[in-house]
Amino acid sequence: MNIFINMNQSVTKKEKYFIDVLSNIIIAIAVLFVLGIAIKDDIAQVFKSGEPQAYYNGDTSKNNISLMINVYWGTEYIDDMLLIFDNYDIKCTFFIGGSWAANNQDVLKDIARRGHEIGNHGYFHKDHKNLSRERNREEIYVTEKLIESICGKKTTLFAPPSGSYNKLTLEVADELGYKTIMWTKDTIDWRDKNTSLIYKRATTKASNGDLILMHPTKNTLEALPDIIKTLKEKEFCLVPVSENIAALIKI
Predict the structure, then answer these.
(1) Residue 66 forms beta bridges with which residues?
(2) CB count, 10 Å around CB of 84?
(3) What is the pTM of this model?
(4) CA-to-CA separations, 61 to 132, 186, 199, 233, in angstroms, rounded
(5) Has residue 251 been placed in a domain?
(6) In a domain, 175, yes or no
(7) Residue 144 domain-assigned (yes or no)
(8) Which domain holds residue 24?
């Protein structure tokens, strides 16, 4: 009798342990499900159909790739970068910081004169997701008017500094007639002074519609010829961002 009771108690403990484990699994699944909905809702809140969005790549049905050069510094490397682009007969998109443009008007004119696309990169390299509606507007609009006064063209693409934006930023950019541009590949050349690493980040698993982010740095300048040659050997066409995303949205 005692043996039977002990065995029964042992089975009960196992069953209880199994039930506890199963309950925890069910709870965990439920939590993940709720979190999944919350995350999905957050994303949907920014990228609802018909609302302004950020573009992380271009048209993946065409073999186009865009080189994007964000400029707030590195002026001493730009002339040589332009020579490389001329030698390979390609056009890129330069996202220009307003404070840089104000002090480097001749360089900006030369970039535009050579046929490269000019984009808006804000004025003071601010964290746009933390700015008010009015400050977002000022950063973009003042830069737009400055670039227009120098180059004679209105910018229509906006690259938020450090990739920092939120729904408000997208709305303000859209109200001002801009498409907000992010990137597919980031060379992180501002941090890593490594020519080989910059080359690998730009070319590894290159795909249709890639938007490749870089800056005017010494190591980027060194890597640039090999980056361009490799992408061309893979039969990609290097085009400005507006051409790359044209099929996704009318500029």
Answers:
(1) 211
(2) 14
(3) 0.81
(4) 37, 21, 24, 19
(5) no
(6) yes
(7) yes
(8) 1-46
